[in-house]
Design a protein that fits this description.
Blueprint lengths: L4 E7 L3 H10 L5 E6 L4 E9 L2 E8 L21 E8 L3 H10 L8 E6 L5 E7 L11 E4 L15 E9 L6 H6 L5 E4 L4 E8 L2 E5 L1
Parallel strand pairs: 1-4, 5-8, 9-10
Antiparallel strand pairs: 1-5, 2-3, 3-4, 6-7, 7-8, 9-11, 11-12
Amino acid sequence: MLDHLDHLVYATPELGRTVEELTGRGIALSPGGPHPGLGTRNHLAALGDHAFLEVIGPDPDQPEPATPRPFGIDELIAPRLVTWAIQVPDLDLALERARAAGHEPGDAVPMSRRRPDGVLLSWRLAFPPDNQGGLIPFVIGWGDTPHPSRGAATGTRLVSLRGEHPDPGRLGLVFAALDTELEVTEAAEPALVAELATVSGTVVLR
């Protein structure tokens, strides 16, 4: 598994339908919880090695948010693997080092959600202004919060994660600045591709 990988983000315009579809393909998912004020909620699947898959979409129990939902959810017409996250022990230091190496990782933003069992999870993350079609990861720090992979549904394992991009060479310096890596091959459009092993066989998300 990739060094520092925290989670994959699979965004959808219809969360319930996508959870049902993925479950039918062998990916067990557990409810994560709502993101208050953002108009979203998620479901999670543990991927092994303290990483997880986040399936996120509109929350019908929340009012329309004042700002667009994250990950371009409002513009989606079908589910898509939109980006990935890397975990760091010291978020501020990681952002400082990335900037010193020539990459703008974005500013740290505090977030939280409450699990179905009532436990409040709090974390900080930074989104890059340009993630190159989802290939440049955002950076996340969980602090003292229990990592979501601990309580996520099991039975799924990440086999591989790779990217496609019109100019793979330009991404290498960014990965180095973030102290991570990703295999990227040349393609007409940017895409993130994950291969998962499930109880029903291999599933590819992109």
